[in-house]
Amino acid sequence: VRLQAFGGGLVQAGxxxxxxxxxxxxTFSNGGMAWFRQAPGKEREFVAxxxxxxxSTYYVDSVKGxxxxxxxxxxxxVYLQMDSLKPEDTAAYYCARSSGGYYGxxxxxxxxxxxxxxxxxxx
Length: 123
Description:
Structural class: mainly beta
């Protein structure tokens, strides 16, 4: 499965952005999906994950109540709706897929990665 993330940009604090990740390949719907982010000089950080059926989600505490992850298997797409953005959300955001269905924070469990899409939140 190949992944392509897009939708990043520059936004003021308090604003919103919607990231999308388009997947190619026939097995998209069988995998767990997640978004990670990496700010300059920092380690890659888990943001949110979603099960293959979209019945379960998992968020890092810092984005709970502000970010929403979703997926449409028929469109081979996973989304990250980001509201009430803060300057500390500034990072490159990456989508990832786990063929084993995992959707938690362990980045080594993911075997497909998209290129990053940059999000910049100004204060």
